[in-house]
Amino acid sequence: MKLAAWLIVVTNIPPSLLTLQELCVLLGCRWQIERLFRLWKEDGLVDEWRSHNPWHILCEVYAKLIAAILQHWLILLALWSMPDRALHQAAKTIRQHVYWLASVLPDESACSLMLARLCRTLRAGCKMGRSFKSPHTYERLLAFE
Q1: How far apart are the C-alpha atoms of 5 and 22, rounded to whole Å?
Q2: From the CB of residue 88, how many other CB atoms can be counted at a distance below 10 Å?
Q3: CA-CA distances (angstroms) from residue 102 to 6, 55, 131?
Q4: Which of 29, 48, 95, 122 has the highest CB neighbour number within 10 Å of its CB?
């Protein structure tokens, strides 16, 4: 039995502002935002803690959220102009360098050098593989330029 392959979207955006194709790309972007939060939750373990003390839990959640924001800031700093990079790989690379980053935080010049080195590492790697089924979201967005 084959499904009708319908796409039903309820929105308040008037048809004069978006074509159906643009709406589908916009829905794909929403999915990317969901994936970002999933990355924070799964890789950052924001929803897990090691204590039963509510204040310890609160501190741990805040610390993990701050780490997730700093990680995202580094990804934006290094990869904003390179949409063909994989966030998951970039996050993993940053986590591999977190102890080195923490060790140079007190020294501003060493921290700047380390951040520049980390950005170069992220730019050189973290590439998305080719998708043979359908184009990546960034490719769909670039098609409208």
Answers
A1: 18
A2: 14
A3: 50, 24, 36
A4: 122
Phi-psi region at 2: left, alpha or beta (left = phi > 0; alpha = psi -120 to 50): beta
DSSP H helical ranges for 12-81: 20-44, 54-79
Per-residue pLDDT of the chain (145 residues; tens, 9 = 90+): 566 777 777 888 888 888 877 887 787 777 777 877 887 788 778 888 888 999 999 999 898 888 888 888 888 888 887 777 777 888 888 888 888 888 998 899 998 999 999 988 888 887 777 777 777 777 777 776 6
Angle formed by the axes of helices 20-44 and 54-79, nearest 10°? 130
Which amino acid would we find at residue 24?
Answer: C
